[in-house]
Amino acid sequence: MIPELGHFALIIAFAVTIVQSIVPIVGAARNQAALVAMARPAALTQLLFVGLAYAALTHAFIVHDFSVLYVSQHSNLVQPLMYRISGVWGSHEGSLLLWSLILALWTVAVAVYSRNLPEILMARVMAVMGMISTGFLAFMLFTSNPFERIFPVPLDGNELNPLLQDPGLAIHPPMLYMGYVGFSVAFAFAVAALLGGKLDATWARWSRPWTTIAWSFLTIGIALGSWWAYNELGWGGWWFWDPVENASFMPWLVGTALIHSLASTEKRGVFKSWTVLLAILAFSLSLLGTFIVRSGVLVSVHAFATDPARGVFILAFLIVVVGGSLALYAWRSATVVSFGRFQLFSRETALLLNNIIFLTAATAVLVGTMYPLVLDAFGAGKISVGRPYFDTMFALVAIPLLLLLGFGPSIRWKGDDWQRIVKITGIFFIASLVIGLLIPFLIEDQLNLATGLGLAGALWVALTTLRDVVSRLSRKLTLSLSYIGMVLAHFGVAVFVAGVTVTMTYHEERDLRMEPGNVYNISGYEFRFQGTRKVQGPNYIADEGVIEIWSDDDKIGELLPQKRTYSGKSNPMTDASIDKTFTRDLYAALGEELENGAWSMRVYYKPLIRWIWLGCILMTIGGVLAVSDRRYRQTVRQKVNNKLGMANV
Amino acid sequence: MSETKPSMLRRFTPFIIFLIMASLLLYMMTLMNRGDYNPRDIPTELIAKPAPEFTLPDLINPEVMVSSSAMKGKTWLLNVWATWCRECWREHEYLVTLAEQKNITIIGLNWRDERTDARNMLRQLGNPFSQIAFDPNSEAVIDWGVYGAPETFLIDSEGIVRVKHKGALNEAVWQEKFARYFTGVTQ
Fold it and tell me: Is the N end or the C end of chain A the one with fewer CB atoms within 10 Å?
């Protein structure tokens, strides 16, 4: 009964979104207040019914209602409660429902927090978000109903892969969706502004915090996915350039360009049409990601089960939404005139360069992801673009980006004297270049240009960011939350780059055959294999290897990797053991038992790998701080009055 | 430097790029739906070659061995399936139809599975297989070059692999790829 109610709630929500996408926009066009006023109640009603449907599916998971096909396929009787709740979004149908729920939440959040917006603009924003909802709910109802029943009812559901029962993986999709779907807000604002034909800086001011918070969610979502892959998959890697990873990375790159471009538009009224275009692109790439993952055009560990009808539906939706908004852009952006004037050497130009770099990176990822798929479809054979292409592209993009990041934030709006900038940052440039190149030289006794430049870039960004803070403090300027947010995010970039550079250069991986008593030395750490013992877990028995770690004749730790055999399972599971510190990870995983108590095993040394995720966390916190800034809680009128008086970023 | 009205070309460029991309994707989807292109079709070396041998314990009755060599003289299907494979659940009903209505001999290859889970699935959905080889350690699966489940091979009476299909079987796939090998056998 409850699953049917859930299904019914979805149908009602679908009907409501149709009203939400048509009525307010008609009202806005005809200037009829009663129709315009429908926008908010419709959004609330939609949230209510999507929420009910979501609750119904969650209920089916909690009470083990295996008569629901989706529940029987993604949970079983022994599954812990937490993984039954997260099981809702474990696969295609349920994750679409989560998508819709999050979209409804964002819509209502916009309705609630944007009370000061002109009603007509609000009506258009709500209507655009309603259209997106309509598409997703129709997708679910017509091709991917999560409430489908099966008969006869199975006594128990499918066993979930224990690998997938991990808290990091459980919260990674909701975070990603918050990011993807969050970009729909900027998209809706952009389309609403185009529809209204009045593209002033106001829309930038209003969509800026929404975009930043969506970007923060996306950042932490991607980082969580990477963290899970590193911890659970046991390959020692943190990013694989898998098409599905790329699908989340492309909106992130364009989203990063967008939050910077929005700053120019908000502060100086420049790049208006460019910013609108980026807002459309960021969300379009989110939709493209959805298409790639769910249409079956690619073969990947992430890919959902294929069904050609789904592919066609998403593609049609993609064409309507993206094609429609780009056509609208082509038609309407002619009316957009940017007034701001600025000189060649100015903050505006620096931000424009930032945009160009991020867009280049996004294009490189798009090409690298789509090219093999298209080539395959045309019968030109299966190729893999793979890691070398992406790594080279990103090394090329990183150099100008880091260089720019060092002095960009110090350049004044409108125009600045390049000699002034050279004077204040020159010393840091030379210092970071020298120190950066020196570090690998001291370690390796030879010049390592790639590593040296990576470290120099990280130092350069960190030092110049700090310099700017110190300079502002010494001038007794108050640091706004949005400025502190920016500083943290940029500092995060430095930490991230340092982590990536050092890990990639100095990591070591060895496949060893170890007998009890054997010692192996990696980068100054001695791995002393003591042998294995039998360990009894709650629902498994394991061979546990004991590896002592010694450094400079001191025992500094112990690794206890396990090879577990779960009761009733024939395949043993590898449980790696990682010794984590701020500066390095030591990692051991048991392979196969060989003769005479010897084992094959894999050991890693990963210096600074934690800095990669630390950098992402700093960027996320930076985004959250920037949104918490007081000025986003002011009213439009106050903002307009304040506009000229604001000096900070 | 100041920004003025964007030119016609500049305004339409994004739209045009999108149109090109969308047509490519549309073309891909059309090929996929017509069955001319399946991204999961990974060419197999085995076509027109003798089928790899396997001898594995039976899923239902572990004392009995299932062997590919015992199938000589028959045209049969080898269907790779598992309970963890969602598409296999969907495909199953059609396999039952094949076995019951068309009298097709299907040997199951139960891959990386649990005996009890697999038996439960058959109890629920019916058993279309004349025998099921139990392969928890991917022994046969590796020889056969299987990439994922479900996957189905057709082996003719000479023991030669004739067809390999990646993904679920259904009537359309059957008519297109498999049916012609069974004319005269069915009905």
Answer: N
